[in-house]
Amino acid sequence: MHEESEEIKTLVHSTLFPLAPFMINRINHGTDDILTDASASDPAHSALSQATGIMIAFYAIGVLVGSPFFGWLGDRITQRRGPMVLGVLIAIAANVIFMVASAYWMLLVARFLQGISNSSVWTMALCLIADNWPEDQLGQQMGKLTSLYPLGMMTGLLTGAMYSKLSPQAPFIMAVILCAVDMCMILAIVERRQAPKAWFGEEEDKEHMTDDDSVETLAPTPPAQKVPVWQLLKSARLWTALYLTLTVAIAMSSSESATPLRLVSQWNFDEAAVGLSQIPFIILYIFSSVFSGCLCDRYGTKIVALLAALTLIPVTICMGLPDHTVSYWVIVGIFFICGGLLASLQTAIYPEIAGVVHQRNNAGSKDGMAMCYGFYNIAYGVGMSIGPLMSGYVYAAFGFFWLCVVLGAFYAGCLPLVFCFAGKSGKLVVRPQPPSSTPAKDEKALADSNV
């Protein structure tokens, strides 16, 4: 259920994606028209691009501010619902501000609040999944979560039609309603710490225990120790995952800022067309997320991330080539391919972060999990800050093609890091151990006896 809650949360945040340039122009100039015949070097067009980038970056600043706090809080509380409910309430406040905004600074405040909301909900949702599934199944489960992100985004893109055909307030009224639904779903979550033990197989394990197992359980187990933050930050594997996160965030936020302007200036798209043009990207993103998650569990995260980053380099550069002299279906087709590849790269990040926590803990503890996912949110926030600002200035000064070249360079930077540090071992492909027919506790006892 927490996965469906994330889909609604993404829908609420993605409401702004196709609308940002039109909202800014309506507030500043009293019209939704955004210079369909202007070139990227036109001063008014450049100013709008930069204003859109700054507005999107304020969302990232909110993520940067909220993530350390919620990461710290997540490692010190036993339930996740409270912070998630707080995040939804903040999202409702942000959408109300969007509805009544009459000045540019009000848009910045609302976008900042959306970032705070996201830092709470995403950090706690990722912790919920890590709490309830073992490490060798996290790829598939995180892939499902990643697939719901663009599904919510795809629904949010339809708000472009609501904005142009109904009213400027209609998308945000819908977002408030969905936040209320999200609140109900979060309150209905039954967390593992509060559920009967039989739900997670603890009683079944007891039935399979032998006398030797019973004696073994009486033996003292090493106490779980707190993992200092500095020890987590010493992990090259964690820094690799954070760089991948930074790259994905820069790519996504750059596209969010520059792509609508490219489509408007080259093919005269309106609000609804800008939103609908992203649907192919999102469709393959959804299916690729689940498929890539299964590949991560079966072959390891290293090979999945390497192939995705390597392929993204030429595909992203090619995205900068089409202009008004060719059909817009060319760039839409490239969006389609980029969606699948970006999903593969992002899906590999979550098991990597959980793997760092498992490596640094003893006695099955997951201390530091919330903080590591807080680091993930911080890296994502930094990328969301860099992406819009970078894309706004590169697009205005050099054009869309060179922006795509810069993004390709970020993907190239992923290759040596992933090859050297990602995964559980130095192997390129890591296959999971075949499951044993004996109970888990007997398997552990046998392994200990062999040592």
Automatic annotation (TrEMBL):
Domain Major facilitator superfamily (MFS) profile: from-to ranges: 1-426
Entry GO terms, CC: membrane
Protein name as it appears in the record: Major facilitator superfamily domain-containing protein
Keywords of this entry: Membrane, Transmembrane, Transmembrane helix, Transport
InterPro entries: MFS, MFS_dom, MFS_trans_sf, MFS_Vesicular_Transporter, Tet-R_TetA/multi-R_MdtG-like
GO molecular function: transmembrane transporter activity
Superkingdom, natural source: Eukaryota
Topology versus the membrane: Multi-pass membrane protein
Keyword hit for Phosphoprotein: no
SUPFAM superfamilies associated with the record: MFS general substrate transporter (SSF103473)
Subcellular location: Membrane
Family per similarity comment: Belongs to the major facilitator superfamily. Vesicular transporter family.
Presence of the UniProt keyword Ribonucleoprotein in the record: no
Main location: membrane
Ranges annotated as spanning the membrane: 51-73, 85-106, 170-190, 236-255, 275-296, 303-322, 328-350, 371-394, 400-422
One Pfam family named in its UniProt record: MFS_1
